[in-house]
Every structure is written in structure tokens, then in C-alpha cells.
Specification:
This protein has about 350 residues and is an alpha/beta fold. It is built from 11 helices and 12 strands. The chain has a domain of about 230 residues: Vaccinia Virus protein VP39 (Rossmann fold, 3-Layer(aba) Sandwich), CATH 3.40.50. The strands form 3 sheets. Strands 1, 2, 3, 4, 7, 8, 9 and 10 form an 8-stranded mixed beta sheet that branches. A two-stranded antiparallel sheet has the order 5-6. A two-stranded parallel ribbon has the order 11-12. Helix 1 packs across helix 11.
């Protein structure tokens, strides 16, 4: 079955038409969403990030027209931004989401200042989403797309969702009653990765679609149902023998572990549950942005996935320049480009192309 976008591609050979509209990306990291918009035909004008290393790797790969190294909190307050940013089709952002992740401390960490790994100034991560909405209020793009972890829809975090809706409304935007919970594996991505997307249309533009809005909707309909065939590990696997031998502990766990399970299932204390052995006939699990652990392992040879295999799992281009960043870490931090490309394509065809 042919997929709309290829999970195995290169920047060198990509055809970025830049004819669908303009985008600016916040919390851009290495540019996962940026590449998705480009694949969908959009012109990404620039980016904002607080991490100097991410700014550097983004510049090398994307050569943005505008690049801003600063916190979204101060960036949203600026009044000297380029005029082009006040005429955007899409403002995109992925506010740091560790506070809401089911893998993190969740409620215990809410409202607390946290420091990023590169040593930037401390920030209260769960308020950055609202700084992002403040930027949307200032720039007034046609559409705002905000991505976050699935944990945002669970437990007490739902109260944050209510506030997010309130802030979007006050900024002049309309959204559907519930955000979109999407699984990358149904969208042509070789990875089980669930993410929540808030997709808001500016109120004055949404009024043009009012004939399609019924009593159960607060915004024009945007159909985001994707039924692309699963891409299993066997399709992205490379017949590569180990370059680096696993240490004795990991080798024993890898040998005992059944394909498709994590090493915690065979460790006597349940440790190493972040290390997962692939199953040839199953989709790879979510790539975790961890510098040292939480690796994915081949099921035939005792090795961690190669960098190019990680690129394919995350739909990153095979010729992406990672500089000093570990590919698995950066890819795990990013929205898979193909995931964004699928969403951006539907936003254009169902909304922007009709305005």
C-alpha cells in the first residue's frame, strides 16, 4: 500500500513547493513539525526556541529567514517582530509537555520551576502553553496548531485543557469541543505515538464556515481521520550487525526478552523497562527522548537501532545533520514530520484553500 508521504526520504531530494501558505514554528526543537509543513507545501519562515543547540541544528538544516533564541514568555511580549509574522497562515507550537506526561511526575511537578538540560533559565513548564496563546493573540494567524502529550487528556490535567480553551477563546479563536487525539501509526509513521492537537481557526474566518457548524460544534468541521496501513519494524529494519557490543547485563536481558517486550519483563526487579526489543510484525513503540537509556533494540542481533533506523521510525530525513546531538534524543523530542504533514494537508484542503 502506497503512503501519502514517505517515511524514508532526504532533504536533498525533497520537493518543497512553498505554495500553500506561511508558517512560523515555536518550541521548534530540531524542526520535526517544520519539515512536516514543508512536505505539505508550506513555507516555514522561521522559528523560536530557548535551546541554543536546537537553534544551531535547526539553522544548519532549514536555513530559516527568522530565528529567535529566547523564551516564549519574552518572545510573546515583543512588539518589534517582522511584519510577515503578522500575516501567517499557521502558527505552530509544541509547548514542553513533561509536566503532563504519564511517564513523568505529573501533578507533583505542576507549577514548579524546571531547568532544561542545556542550563537555560528556569521556567514553569505548564504555563508556557498560555504564553504561546498570548503570542497567537498578538500575531493573529489564520490557524494555530498546538501539539502536546496524550496525558494532557487524563486525570486532573483536564482542568488545564479547560483553561487552554478559555485562553484561545479570549485570543479570538474557535476550536472543536475536544482536541484531536491522534496516533502516528495510523498516519504513515512507523511508530506508535499518541499526541493531542489543538487546532484553532481565527473567529472572523470561522464565521465563513458557519453553515457547516451544528449545535454540537464550536468550530468548523475539520476531519482528521487517517487510516494508513501500519508500517511494521520489518519494513524499516536494516540487516546491520552490532558495531558496539552490549554490556553483560543488557546482553543477558536482550537474550531472555521476547520480541515486542521491554527488558523489565525479564529483570528480577522489573528494571530496564525503558529498553524494548522490537517485533518484526509490530509497529515500533514511541521513541523516548532520553540521552542514555530507553533504547529500541533489534530482535535478531543484540544491538540498538541504527541512527538511520531511528530516522525512519521518526520519519526524519536520512541526510539530516544532527551536529553534536544524539539522533535518538532529538527525534524523540520532535513531532514526526509525516504526522505534521498529514495534518497540515487537511488544514489546507478543508480550511485555508476555501478562505
Amino acid at each position: 500500500m502506497k503512503h501519502k508521504f514517505s517515511y524514508e526520504w532526504t532533504l536533498k531530494d525533497a520537493n518543497f513547493t512553498k505554495d500553500k501558505g506561511t508558517v512560523f514554528s515555536c518550541f521548534a526543537c530540531g524542526g520535526g513539525s517544520t519539515m512536516g509543513y514543508k512536505l505539505a507545501g508550506f513555507d516555514v519562515l522561521g522559528h523560536n526556541d530557548i535551546d541554543k543547540k536546537m537553534i544551531e541544528v535547526y539553522k544548519v538544516n532549514h536555513k530559516p529567514k527568522y530565528s529567535f533564541l529566547e523564551s516564549i514568555t519574552t518572545f510573546a511580549k515583543r512588539k518589534d517582530l517582522p511584519k510577515e509574522l503578522y500575516n501567517l497562515d499557521i502558527l505552530d507550537g509544541s509547548p514542553p509537555c513533561s509536566s503532563f506526561s504519564m511517564a513523568g511526575s505529573r501533578e507533583k511537578g505542576w507549577g514548579k520551576e524546571k531547568k532544561f538540560r542545556e542550563g537555560q533559565s528556569k521556567q514553569v513548564l505548564d504555563t508556557l502553553f498560555f504564553d504561546f496563546i498570548n503570542l497567537a493573540k498578538e500575531l493573529q494567524p489564520k490557524v494555530v496548531v498546538a501539539e502536546n502529550v496524550a496525558g494532557l487528556m487524563m486525570g486532573a490535567a483536564k482542568e488545564y485543557v479547560k483553561k487552554i480553551y478559555k485562553e484561545f477563546k479570549e485570543a479570538g479563536y474557535k476550536l472543536k469541543i475536544k482536541p484531536y487525539l491522534l496516533d502516528a501509526s495510523t498516519m504513515g509513521v512507523p511508530q506508535r505515538r499518541k499526541r493531542v492537537f489543538f487546532i484553532a481557526l481565527r473567529k472572523d474566518l470561522s464565521n465563513q464556515f458557519m453553515e457547516s457548524v451544528d449545535m454540537f460544534q464550536t468550530a468548523p468541521k475539520l476531519d482528521l481521520k487517517f487510516n494508513e496501513q501500519n508500517i511494521n519494524y520489518s519494513q524499516i529494519r536494516e540487516d546491520s550487525k552490532p558495531i558496539k557490543t552490549l554490556n553483560e547485563t543488557l546482553l543477558k536481558l536482550w537474550t531472555k526478552c521476547l520480541p515486542g517486550n521491554n527488558f523489565g519483563t525479564v529483570h528480577k526487579k522489573g528494571h530496564y523497562f525503558g529498553e524494548t526489543k522490537m517485533h518484526l510484525n509490530k509497529v515500533c513503540p514511541t521513541i523516548i527522548a532520553n540521552q542514555s537509556g530507553s533504547n529500541l533494540y533489534d530482535n535478531i542481533y543484540p544491538r540498538i537501532l541504527t541512527d538511520s533506523e531511528y530516522c525512519k521510525v521518526g520519519t526524519y530525513p536520512l541526510d539530516y545533520i544532527f551536529l553534536s546531538n544524539k539522533p535518538k534524543y532529538l527525534i524523540g523530542m520532535s513531532v514526526p514530520p509525516v504526522m505534521t504533514a498529514q495534518i497540515a494537508t487537511e488544514i489546507y484542503s478543508q480550511w485555508l484553500n476555501k478562505l
